[in-house]
Specification:
With 151 residues, this protein is α+β, with helices and mostly antiparallel strands. It is built from six helices and five strands, in the order E-H-H-E-E-H-H-E-H-E-H. A five-stranded antiparallel β-sheet has the order 2-3-1-5-4. The mean pLDDT is 93.
């Protein structure tokens, strides 16, 4: 069963940060032969606060096998407390187009390998275009609950 149409991931990397751990994490989440599967990280430079240069690293996943693998890997890393937070905040994490949004604390993830759901700050942004049918809010909520293993 198709879980998501598209998953978009992005993260800001400061000019004094090493981008390799970020790239490594993207590859851990999607452990495939990226060249063979034609998967590419996109990077662009931007000017942040106080004229500091940041790199915005992004990945868009559209193939069903890729989105399913990514989501399975991601949600297997979240503990029960983090999943409960997402369920409790489910309404506010869905937009009008029924995209589901998650933010993970970048520093805890990269330094402690701890998956912590947050609402703002330095984080990995994850936008999941859900594949619930019919495309209604209550159906989407139920699909997200199943995805999280919390029904």
């Amino acid at each position: 069963m198709k879980i998501a149409h598209t998953v978009k991931l992005s993260v800001f990397v400061g000019e004094n940060e090493d981008i390799r751990p970020v790239n490594d994490l993207f590859h851990q989440w999607l452990p495939l032969d990226w060249e063979k599967e034609k998967i590419h990280l996109e990077s662009q430079k931007a000017t942040g606060f106080e004229q500091k240069v940041i790199t915005i690293t992004a990945l868009t996943i559209t193939k069903e096998a890729h989105t399913s693998l990514f989501l399975k890997n991601l949600f297997s890393k979240l503990d029960a407390v983090q999943k409960k937070i997402l369920i409790h905040q489910l309404e506010s994490r869905l937009d009008d187009e029924l995209n589901f949004f998650i933010r993970l604390d970048k520093n805890k993830l990269l330094k402690e390998n701890k998956y912590a759901v947050i609402d703002s700050g330095d984080c990995f942004h994850i936008k999941i275009s859900t594949a619930a049918f019919p495309k209604k809010r209550d159906v989407t909520k139920e699909a997200v609950r199943k995805l999280l293993g919390v029904e």
